[in-house]
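Re: beginner question about structure tokens

> Can someone show what the tokenized structure looks like for a real chain? I only ever see the sequence side.

Sure, here's an example I had lying around. Input first:
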Amino acid sequence: MSSLWRVRVTHVTEDAVELALAAIHPDAGEPSGSAVFAMRLLADTDPQRLEREAGQGAYWDDEALRRYAGRVIAAVTVTGRRNLPFDEAAARRRIEEDLHSRGLDPAATAWQDAFLQEWGALWRDPERVPSAVLGIRLADPTWSAAATPGREWDTAAYG
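And the corresponding structure tokens:
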């Protein structure tokens, strides 16, 4: 599965974790305020613990993860939403308009190369991609241990 989000831990207290999310793939969709999504993100910081406590394969098992997250997550908030909802067709049109304005021919190989370069640049630019801040209040504060401020990772988490 492709990574969907780039995650950065921005703030941690004894019973809460704040994560900055930036989409890195158009399939990321909307950032979810569900406990399952939050649990997947936290599990990325300690996957072995999730396996031990919730069972083998729990990360991808929505029902098992929902039950486990109910014991770990007290509440989830989504704030700081930017570039949402993301309109993929509009983003493609903007790139195509730019390529036209540069005089590139859509039938030429140079067009495809330029489009792929611009599309990749869009997904590397935190100002243009969908993003949000996820606040996670923990019922089990021990899950904040591996979430150190500044830690970053890419994830395929959904939910």
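Each token stands for a local structural state, so reading them left to right follows the chain. The first strand starts at residue 5 and ends at 13.
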